[in-house]
Amino acid sequence: MKAIHIIGILILAIIIIGGAAVLMGSTDNANLVQPIKVGFIGPLTGDAAVYGLPAQNMVALAVDEINAQGGVDGRRLEIIYEDGKCSGANSATAMQKLVNVDNVEVVLGGFCSSESLGAEPVATQNKVFLFSLGSSSPALTGKSKFFARDYPSDATQGSVLAEVAYNDKAWRKVAFIQEQLDYPLGVYNAFSSRFKELGGVVVKEEFAPGITDFRSILTKLKAEDADALFIATQTPAAADRILKQLTEINWKPNILIADAISGDPATVQANAEILEGALAAEFGIDENNPKFRHMLDAYKNEYGSEPPYLSYAQIEYDGVYIIRDAIEAVGYDGEKVAEYVRNLDGWQGASGSITIGQNGDRIGGHLPKVVRDGAVVLYSG
Amino acid sequence: MFPYIENLVILGSIYSMLSVSLNLTMGYTGLFNLGHAAFFGIGAYVSALLALTFGVPFWVAILCAALFAAFFGFLLGFPTLRLRGDYLALGTLGFAFIVEAILKNWTEVTRGPLGIPGIPRPELLGFSFSSLDAYLVLSLAFLAVTIIVTHRIVNSPFGRVLKSIREDETAAQTLGKNTVRYKMIALTVSAFFAGMAGSLYAHYITFIDPTSFSFPVLILLLSAVIIGGMSSIKGSIVGGFLIILLPEPLRFIGLPSNLVGAGRQMIYAALILVILLKRPQGLFGEYVFRRKRK
Amino acid sequence: MVLEQLILNGIIAGGIYALIAIGFSMTYGLLRFLNLAHGSLYVVGAYLAYLFFSLGMPIVAAFILAVIGGAIVGVAMNYSVYKPLQRRKSNSLIMLLASLGIFIFVENLIIALFGAEVKTIRTGPIIQGMDFFGAIITQTQVIIILVAFVTLLIVEVFLQKTKAGKAMRATADNKSVAQVIGINVERITTYTFALASALAASAGVLIAIEQNLEPTMGLNVIIKGFTASVVGGLGNVRGAVAGAFLLGLVENIGIWFLPSGYKDAIAFVVLVAFLLFRSQGLFGRKE
């Protein structure tokens, strides 16, 4: 019976250590000058970790800066990071833990829209403010008065591109390759509904995440003889594969890309040739914005390289500072912070001027962009 | 603190329902059913869609979800129960992946990867089960039903035949038992409770998407049954709770942040291997793992 | 034009699946269980090549080292987990679950060591493909097909002509008889794992070069692997190869008629179809 003793002890040990850590954590409340604990939910593992880990880094950077400047109202700002795993169920549990064990009033997250959708009911029920720094699904618009995001909904991305495609470029048929995940599907829905409204036709082929061989799918789409190809993937890596395979099968269509792709300079540059003239609609970055530049330099100093997804990076950086301002203005209370943030008007950040609308979405949406010489620039017709 | 624990107990009871029902086929009848997560998913989606599209009250929805899942168990049984061991495993696994592909692709009905948000909490005569306490009672109640029914089945003459099928199917057949019929019933009942668990899950988290029911979930369920012990209802209950509770304290152990997620999974997988290597009957199960003589 | 392309794509995919399926069938034939951890060797091979390539080694050297490394890891897996389980006469479900445990462990170990993002091995600029009977094929793909075919040929010769190969086949066929005629079953098991793992690892390196690597790449490929094996007949090496090419072709031609989102599901439908109607596969014997 020795083995069961070992296993039993192992399990018991884990539970005891964990329980002890929890208990030690909760006695912190006795302290007077206690830090302000804010939660964070993002994909720290799995495929979406390519977004979640840099997000974590960026948040940590902003927090360090704030603490170096004296913290929030003289108190240290501390973030408790939870892994949402880009899953609604995991995020709901993570939210439960943050709210009920760590007693946070504000949570930065989710990143994936499924994370936000999963965590929001818990936030609402417990009057905790959930502030997403990257979820773009239209399903989150106006979801709850305890939810807001400083990132715009994909609804604008799709419609802007549809209008440029139909009106400016006179394209009538667009082939669409879409990864089977919520963000790409959201972009597809937004684009195709507007494009069809205008009178165009969209032909779509989907692919499951993790597929690396797109040749047959692309061959099928090529035979559709469309005016352009829209590529919507969750990560730039998948798009990179698609673009390379486009070159390999000698297909050089007019291209439209989702902003997850255009937002990654490395991918755009690596595929500069085939992307020449490609259209995108971005929630742009302004390299001339001093706060933006400062953010870039600080990140480079701390982590040795530029943040991978600049349009998200600036949002994440701003998000922490918005929370700082909110807490300093109204105190650390979920409901009050929620109201403050949802009424944000013209707040200046690394991502420009931020105004949050009645429905909790950032106002200002996406602008049409075009790829020239491996760089994404404003589209001017 | 307490609500956090309540949340875990609710999830634990849902997963216990799944592992108890899985044990009925795997542990007691010896069927390598790797498709269990699919019944979970079917139950969840059916319940969610009925509630949202047709405004069906929870109590009817959960029954329909369970019946629907059971029906699929029945359908799956037809072709696969003729297969032996490993082939049955692959067949049921294939079924699970096909179901997942349908959930992802049939966007008109399932909304595909966007998932289904806003699933309503149950209501009974004006009382809404929106609080954790209420839902806790609800899920424990359904767990109790699952346990009682499974216990009855397993300790009845019917259950003895199931075990004999597990031990030596050919012998059972020569004794005149229509083994396929028995296996079919076991699979259908097992699917019924998995569907029920799915509905409970959907109305609790209020948001479901295809990833909530995919391959990693299967691994969790198999672990629950293995750790708890095959052909032990008690073991499956413990197993179900354990797989929910186990990763939680690991949250608190301070691993460097970029290792947190992967580190947790690794510890988890290592635990499974240790159990399989050192004590394969799990905590409470019978040692049913001897290779049969051909 | 289109059909040729789809067929070619199918053949390329089939080559990769074949490298996986052979090893999978081999270990099944020998130990009679579904070794899901076989997919891990594919990932390990890819990442080892990536590691060596980043350290500055030429790609061919990295390839060879990665394959050897994969073989070593495979043998280690057998030694540390499967052998003890076999010794206590565990049934195949336990072995299957153990292989799952190994699979998850390795996948997460790679995430911990290398990170979760997609990595690439770039051996040169992206070049356009060449025309080939109406389809387009790139240089790297030609290499893949060549390497796959040559490897399959070598394996075939090895199994049929060499003493060790024949011993492996004999042991897979009937372990007790093999033991009686003096074959060192334990050593043969080690050889089998080494060979199977080397093949899987080589497939991983090829895909890493041609496409990308990410830690989760193993699941998808092992599913194709065991489907191909079932189609060919579990335990039958030649069958596995045939099954692999068949699967590759059906997948790529199939999406012409179906929405592409179902591409992976095609493999499952093929799997289930065979299980239902011909579970011994194309070339297996009914047990």
SSE layout:
The complex is a heterotrimer of chains A (381), B (294) and C (287).
Chain A: H1 2-26, E1 36-42, H2 49-68, E2 77-83, H3 88-100, E3 106-108, H4 113-126, E4 129-132, E5 147-149, H5 154-168, E6 173-179, H6 182-198, E7 201-207, H7 215-222, E8 228-232, H8 236-248, E9 254-257, H9 259-262, H10 265-270, H11 272-275, E10 279-282, H12 290-303, H13 310-330, H14 334-342, E11 347-349, E12 352-354, E13 367-372, E14 375-378
Helix pairs in contact in A: 2-13, 3-4, 5-6, 13-14
Chain B: H1 2-28, H2 36-53, H3 58-80, H4 85-105, H5 107-110, E1 116-117, E2 123-124, E3 127-128, H6 132-154, H7 157-167, H8 169-174, H9 179-205, E4 207-208, H10 215-228, H11 233-245, H12 247-252, H13 260-278
Antiparallel strand pairs in B: 1-4, 2-3
Helix pairs in contact in B: 1-6, 1-9, 1-10, 1-11, 2-3, 2-4, 2-9, 3-9, 6-9, 7-9, 10-11
Chain C: H1 2-31, H2 38-54, H3 59-87, H4 92-114, E1 130-132, E2 135-137, H5 139-161, H6 163-173, H7 175-180, H8 185-210, H9 217-232, H10 237-254, H11 263-277
Antiparallel strand pairs in C: 1-2
Kindly describe this structure.
The complex is a heterotrimer of chains A (381), B (294) and C (287). Chain A has helices at 2-26, 49-68, 88-100, 113-126, 154-168, 182-198, 215-222, 236-248, 259-262, 265-270, 272-275, 290-303, 310-330, 334-342; strands at 36-42, 77-83, 106-108, 129-132, 147-149, 173-179, 201-207, 228-232, 254-257, 279-282, 347-349, 352-354, 367-372, 375-378. With 381 residues, chain A is α/β, with parallel strands linked by helices. In chain A, helix 8 links the parallel strand 8 (228-232) and strand 9. The model of chain A is unreliable at 26-31 (pLDDT under 50). By secondary structure, chain B is mainly alpha-helical. Chain B has one domain. In chain B, the strands form two sheets. In chain B, strands 1-4 form a two-stranded antiparallel ribbon. Chain B has a two-stranded antiparallel ribbon with strand order 2-3. In chain B, a hairpin with a 2-residue loop joins strand 2 (123-124) and strand 3 (127-128). The mean pLDDT of chain B is 83. Chain C is mainly alpha-helical and 287 residues long. Chain C has a single domain, classed as ABC transporter involved in vitamin B12 uptake, BtuC. In chain C, a hairpin with a 2-residue loop joins strand 1 and strand 2. The longest helix of chain C has 30 residues, at 2-31.
